[in-house]
Amino acid sequence: MPTVRAVFAFLLTTMLAATPAAAADLRLEEFFKGRTTAKGSFHAITGLKREFDVILHGRWDGRTLILREDFRYTDGERDTKTWRFVKTGPNTYSGTREDVLGETKVTLAGNEAWFNYRVDLDPGDGRNVVRFFDKLELSPDGRTLLNRASVFKGPLPVASVRVDFTR
């Protein structure tokens, strides 16, 4: 008959094996260095839905991550955007992009990151400014990063975005 110690050891081992592995801490410069691919979708409250693929190229110089995003939408449109993330602390970055008004502050905690920023969707004479609220979550294996964003026009939610990045 098994001893109490043996039963306890078996139960403890079984419970630990069933516990999901914790994801590594997210570091933008580690995940996005080099080539990354992504698939995403944009859903507006008007019913508009756009799907896209992205090829990203990241360069890290020890302080700044330059992240070029080459978008290809299913309707054939192409676009390129470039983020510049400057590391401002162990868990913070300041980010800019050509269509972002001002800059964003990125905050990391464990396998997650949060940031928000304003974008003018109609550059030129007219203005159509919306605010994106992004949340990034690194998978336990560190190979995928999920980005979910809510888009607001003033106080009203007008769209959502999902992007799945893969290393």
Please explain how this structure is put together.
It is a single chain. The protein has 2 helices and 11 strands; from the N terminus they run H-H-E-E-E-E-E-E-E-E-E-E-E. By secondary structure, it is mainly β. Helix content is 11%, strand content 59%. Strand 2 and strand 3 (64-73) form a beta hairpin. It has a 10-stranded antiparallel barrel. It has a single domain (23-166), classed as Calycin beta-barrel core domain (Lipocalin), CATH 2.40.128. Residues 6-21 have low confidence and may be disordered. The protein has helices at residues 4-18, 28-31, and strands at residues 34-44, 49-60, 64-73, 78-89, 92-97, 100-101, 104-109, 112-120, 129-138, 144-153, 156-166.
Q: What is the strand arrangement across the widest sheet? A: 1-2-3-4-5-7-8-9-10-11
Q: What separation lies between the terminal Cα atoms?
A: 50 Å
For this structure, what is the CATH homologous superfamily? Calycin beta-barrel core domain
CATH architectural name: Beta Barrel
Q: Characterize the biggest β-sheet.
A: 10 strands, antiparallel, barrel
- What percent of residues are in strands? over 45%
Poorly predicted ranges: 6-21
Number of strands: 11
Tell me the count of domains: 1
Summarize the structure.
With about 170 residues, the protein is mainly beta. It has helices at about 5-20, 30, and strands at about 35-45, 50-60, 65-75, 80-90, 90-95, 100, 105-110, 110-120, 130-140, 145-155, 155-165. Residues about 5-20 have low confidence and may be disordered.
Question: Which helices and strands, and how do they pair?
Answer:
Blueprint (H helix, E strand, L loop, with lengths): L3 H15 L9 H4 L2 E11 L4 E12 L3 E10 L4 E12 L2 E6 L2 E2 L2 E6 L2 E9 L8 E10 L5 E10 L2 E11 L1
